[in-house]
Amino acid sequence: MTLYMLSVHHDGTADFESKTMEELQPVFEAVDRFNKELQDAGSWVFAGGLEPIEAATTVDNTKGEALVIDGPFSESKEFLGGFWVIKAADLDEALAWAQRGSKACEGKVEVRPFQGDTEGL
């Protein structure tokens, strides 16, 4: 089994904060069902949602002195909203999970394998 990160990317023009809990509840429920499917299949490793982009802080210590900046690493129309780390036999299986996750969270999902030997994780 290989570990894959399924990262959820939302369009920056989508204003989740203006939606009511009633409007968001179906998405939360769909993601909960997807999480349960991953767990039941033995593919679940870890997952998490992220606070809004305004909560990001970037640290740059590439030039000899640490610079701490409020905000995301880059300006973008899209933002990372959350992620899953899953176990999958191959890329095809990871992509199948990503399709289901994308539908559940109503966002694009990037699939990327971890480097190296992840067997013991």
From TrEMBL:
Residues 15-113 form the YCII-related domain. Signal peptide: none annotated. SUPFAM superfamilies: Dimeric alpha+beta barrel (SSF54909). It comes from the Bacteria. PANTHER family: BLL7171 PROTEIN (PTHR35174:SF3), BLL7171 PROTEIN-RELATED (PTHR35174). Belongs to the YciI family. This is YCII-related domain-containing protein.
